[in-house]
């Protein structure tokens, strides 16, 4: 019985590693995931980090948790944009590093006022 359990355990671990239901989207925490050229005119607020104890076959889930932690930090700072700078998967942990920026909001251009309309018959 014990040997059967040992034989099944690795396969169960691999199967469970793909059971993550939440996907990171650009709108998580109200942040825009950007690249460095997108934030040239923005204020760098801070570097942010996330760490997860998951690694190895669980690295994908660990990276997702680390990214969510970093995004939560950026959101708490009031950032509007986040630029990922580094991801590390090493023995014992998975980390995500990013810079949090506050970018000016751009208001949509208002429509020009329309003058009197003339209709010809």
Features:
alpha+beta, about 120 residues, 4 strands, four-stranded mixed sheet, Translation Initiation Factor IF3
How would you characterize this protein structure?
The chain is of the alpha+beta class and 121 residues long. The protein has a domain at 31-104: Hypothetical protein apc22750. Chain B (Translation Initiation Factor IF3), CATH 3.30.110.70. 29% of the residues lie in helices and 26% in strands. It contains two helices and four strands, in the order αββαββ. Mean pLDDT is 78; it is low at 7-24.
Brief description of this entry?
The protein is α+β, with helices and mostly antiparallel strands and about 120 residues long. The chain has a domain of about 70 residues: 2-Layer Sandwich (Translation Initiation Factor IF3).
Topology:
Blueprint: H1 2-17, E1 32-33, E2 43-52, H2 59-77, E3 81-90, E4 93-102
Parallel strand pairs: 1-3
Antiparallel strand pairs: 2-4, 3-4
